[in-house]
Amino acid sequence: MNTIQILIADDDLEIAQLIKIYLTNEGYQVLTASNGREALNLIAKESIQLIILDVMMPEMDGLEVVRAVRTEHGIPILMLSAKAEDMDKIMGLTTGADDYMVKPFNALELIARVKSLLRRSIYLNAQIQPAQDQDEIQIHSLNISKKSHTVMVEGRNVNLTSTEFDILYLLASHPGQVLSAEAIFEAVWKDKFLESTNTVMVHISKLRDKLESELGGVKLIQTVWGVGYKIDP
């Protein structure tokens, strides 16, 4: 299972630590910064998938950080502020933040918003980076043939349903790229994804069982917790 890295930038150390505990319990890796400049230094050095950013910080405030990040990155940003006025929210969102929460906040709601932002980010990336259509894909010891709709492992046929094949082909044709449940559902089922459905999870679970049986226990399909699925090249 791969870990998403999240940056918390807040000069209130108690709040930062509380958020960190909740995120860590959800399986995320968390970095912290106590001011805007420290946050930008971490963003430059680390692979950050989401930023939780306080508006009022010393040295460089949250709005300045958002402007600086948006010159180079499309990383999802969730802003936190003690200011509840509509104009403060509008300023944060128009500056480039993706979401805005007012302190004090419900920690479970924050986690839900984090997951939503990550899913949306992965889905948009999947849409922006379409894979090149290939008749055959060789990944690890699997040979996937789109033309014959078959999957072979060392000469043995892996018995997959049509839907399982389509999911495997989709993931294998985007090696190393995380695809959300939304992206997978809409690409394979050609229908609008419903938040409450666990259709993708059920099919991937069955697909995994079949592949691991043929691959001697090798876990080909990786879960990126709270975000989606991928196959490493």
From TrEMBL:
Entry's Gene Ontology molecular function annotations: phosphorelay response regulator activity; transcription cis-regulatory region binding
Domain Response regulatory: from-to ranges: 5-118
Database matches in Gene3D superfamilies: 3.40.50.2300, 6.10.250.690, Winged helix-like DNA-binding domain superfamily/Winged helix DNA-binding domain
Record-linked InterPro entries: CheY-like_superfamily, OmpR/PhoB-type_DNA-bd, Sig_transdc_resp-reg_C-effctor, Sig_transdc_resp-reg_receiver, WalR-like, WH-like_DNA-bd_sf
GO cellular-component term (any): protein-DNA complex
Residue list for modification 4-aspartylphosphate: D54
PROSITE patterns listed in its UniProt record: OMPR_PHOB, RESPONSE_REGULATORY
Residues of the DNA-binding region: 134-233
GO BP of this protein: regulation of DNA-templated transcription
Subcellular location: Cytoplasm
Domain OmpR/PhoB-type per the UniProt entry, residue ranges: 134-233
Record's keyword terms, sorted: DNA-binding, Phosphoprotein, Transcription, Transcription regulation, Two-component regulatory system
SMART domains: REC, Trans_reg_C
Name the record gives this protein: DNA-binding response OmpR family regulator
Native source species: Paenibacillus prosopidis
